[in-house]
């Protein structure tokens, strides 16, 4: 049984199942009422980080690419300390490549902070926490204890063309918040481009 689980045929079947589930998820998203509210496309490219921040291994040689959809909401907040912020949502598919390739699907709400509602800055910072699912727990040298991970993000960016385009530098952190140990975490840094439809 161990041989079967490590065989190429087993891995191929697992990849096919993952592709089917991902395709089904994308199909349901694009054929639901939710797509009527989609505001645009998100493209991202970045790389892994060393153990300077949260993760306890070095994956600085890894590449990280994402493609996804984002949509706004009617919810906005005005906080005394943080200022004016708007809530939006992202659903995306990612690949992280080093010795292996890990595939990730994720969904997360994001708050974009613009300063003052009546006099918005020409830049913003953002924060988001969502959920993600990895196709496998092994990503050398990192071994995750669960395939389900929280997807946390901090970013700073600038809008172009009356916010039709946005460019954001992001720190991305995946972890299970110690719901199960070990929890090494996975850190990447990326440059994200949001283009509105």
From TrEMBL:
Keywords: Hydrolase. Pfam families: PagL. GO terms for molecular function: hydrolase activity. Gene3D superfamilies: 2.40.160.20. InterPro entries: Lipid-A_deacylase-rel. This is Acyloxyacyl hydrolase. It comes from Aliikangiella marina.
